[in-house]
Every structure is written in C-alpha cells, then in structure tokens.
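Contributing new records

If you add data, match the layout below exactly. Sequence lines come first and carry their own label; structure lines follow with theirs. Keep one chain per record. Anything else will be rejected by the validation script.
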Amino acid sequence: MIPFEPQAKGPLDGLVVLDLSRLVAGNMLSLQLADFGAEVLKIEDPEQGDPLRAWRVKGIPAYWKVYARNKKSVALNLREPEGKALLLALAERADAFIENFRPGTLERMELGPSVLHERRPGLVIVRISGWGQDGPYRFRPGYGTLVEGIAGFAAKNGFEDRPPVLPPLALADMVAGLYGAFAVVTALRYRDVFGGKGQVIDLSLLDPLVSILGPEAAVYKLTGQVPQRMGSRSNTTSPRNVFPTQDGRWISISASMQVMVERLYKALGVPEMLNDPRFRTNTDRVAHAEEAEEPVRAFIASHTLAEGLAFFESHEITAAPVYGIDQFVADPHVQAREIVVEVPDADMGSIPMHAVVPRLSETPGALRRPAPKLGEHTAEVLSRVGVDAAAFQELASRKIV
C-alpha cells in the first residue's frame, strides 16, 4: 500500500484553484492540477455536495474517492449573499476558477467574469459547458452523452449492421478535462511569464471530442463519403482487429506499418500474400480487410492465448491480450510500473486507483491526501479570509457553510 504524502510538493505548488464544477469534466480538470501540487478547493453545496459523491458502488462513492483525491472541500451556500461574499474573498487569493453552470448562470449569480476580474485581474476562469459559451445551442443542457452523439463518435463506433455505440465511460468529459488542465497551465504561463492578464477559457465538451476524432471533415471533403462503422477494424490500416483464441480469450493485432505486415505474413507462412494486389498496401488491405485478416484469424483460433502471444512475441509482432480489469491489475507489467496503486481508505481499508499521470522525472506528482469529506476543510480555508471560530459557528448555524 502506498501512503499519502501530505508534505509532498509539486511543480504547481502555490497555485490556488477554486473548483465550483460538478460531476466529471471539472473534476478531471482539477485532478490534473491537484496531482501536481496545486491547492484545489472544491466549492460544494453544504447540503448535497458535488453530485459525483452520489455515484456509489455498494454504498461507496468510488468515483469521488478517485477523482477528488488531493483536493480540499469547502462548503458554501452560494444562494445566500454571505456565501457569495466569501467566495469572492477566496477568489481574490486564487489563480484559477472552474465552473460548469449553464451559460449565463454565473452572471445571474452576480459572479460572472467581469465581477471576478474586478476583484482579481489575474484570475484564469474556466467555463465548462456542453456546447460552448456562444452559438445557437449554448443554452441547451449539455451532457457528454449528447455530445458523443452529435460529434460523430457514436456514429463511427460499433459495427455497421448494428446501432451506433456510445462509449461506456464519460469520454467527452474526460477529454475536456485534460484539455482544460492544459489550457489553465497555458494561461497561467502567459500571466506569470509574459505579464499577461487573467482570461476566460471557453471549454465546451464538444470541441475537444471533435479534435480527437481525426481528420473526419477532411476525409469527407476528399471522398464525399461518410465512413461507416467498422467494429474493431481501422479505415487506415489492416490487419487490425481482435481475434478469438482457442481457449475463449481474445488477442488484438495492429499491423499499422508495412514492415509489420511483412513480418506478420511471413511468420504465419503466407508470404505470397505480400505480392497479391489486394494486400500490397494499407489502402489495398483496408479495402479487402476480411481476406487480409483470414490467416491471422485462423492461426489465433487454433491456439490458446498463451500460445498465440508467445508466437507473436517471438516474431516481434505487435499483438496483445484483450483484458478485463481483473486481468489488467494482475498483469506483471502493470504491477511493476505501479500503474494502479493501493492507497489507504477509511471505508475500504485501501482503495486501488490510477497513479499520477504523466510521470515527470524531476517534478513528479504525488498522492497527498484522500478525497475529502463534504466541508472537511471549510473552517481551515475560510480562516484565511478572516472567518474565526466564532464567526464560522454562526455561519454554520444559518447553513451558509
């Protein structure tokens, strides 16, 4: 078990982030900053907290425990003037401010960028929404599921003869969170190195997801064709698929370079396929993917997982097993690199979660503290803006904190 390191420093040490967001995208964003040393203050409703806390497995808020690690919880009732005043006081000492209300909501709360920048000109404000801060869809509800549909992800995911498939995870939110963390660090570098002002980051869920889908628009313009779903195949390389083994497991193959295709066909004893005009280039093989895969499929089907993997490894062919989480956490490479780590947990004794990503040689991130209880750090943080113990108790009695 890896203990928490409360005193560990990181390259973002000294940065203060106010995170008013709820659910996934904002928490993913602030997690990246927290893992590398920023002090992330989760501003939560005193009654309900972040709705991510309600995503429970056997009564345990597993999602919260993973995505709220290294953060502090400050409970503030922003429906009350005193709560908003305290938030503004904290904003005067902050470097970044994250929110994911529907566009216009922050302004109606009298907490919009103009108000925040009047108090703290250097503040970097991240505004997360489904569709962006402008455009005809800006006021629509914007969950990641809707974005994954409209962006084209679902349309290209799955098999041609079956319905489009949404991802089984909050993909649009996760991608937006990663882009958002990069944007915050970029804006802070502009402020701190070049003497720039604070600024507003318009972070929709839609734009980042579109950016990772490849040159879809360019391909459509060139061909006039809308690509069809291909299952686990690729429209750029072949053979590329998952294949069942003799013992009911699966192996993934990706021959994405010509040299790898040559190595694969020679190892399988079918070098003549390299001279067949159907299989000479990636373009040829993609057009005849079923036939291009046939010798691979036949070989894997006649061998166990262990036999197939040993064969491909001995010939330096790019292949890997298809794992479930049970097999992944038991894999010796995963264990050796500590990709998943066990950390202390009050409810479970210990809880496995992903290690800090990415790995920096000189300024690595660290696990400093577990996900906080609702309002756990409210008194500590508000003491910085003049709220002493007596004042805190009075605010608590009126449910401001």
